[in-house]
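Data availability (excerpt). The following record was deposited with the supplementary files.
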Amino acid sequence: MKILISNISESPLYQQIKDQIIDAILKGELAEGDTLPSIRAFANDLKVSVLTIRRVYDDLEKEGFVNSQIGIGTFVSASNIELLRDSKRRLVEQKMQDMIQTAKSLGISRQELNEMMNILFEEE
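Predicted structure:
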């Protein structure tokens, strides 16, 4: 798992890390049962505070994306499948919002946009 953080981003470091871990889970790059790095190792790799990584892991656990076991590690959890499905839908909806805004700004009609999407969807 590759995490890229930016000091010039408007998002705080913990949010950047958390969002990228969630994206990796939703895209299947991290599967159920996969182990996340230890807090200390992850903090050292990213050159951030252990408190930052602790906050990320705590938030991910509260949201049902991971399970932490003291002394063993932090593991990707798929126990809340509906949460994962909803998160995937939100990701697609965000991308669709961007697509719609771009189409509107370029004067592309709904019908033309639907035709484009149908063609692209069928190609996959």
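Summary of structural features: The longest strand covers residues 66-69.
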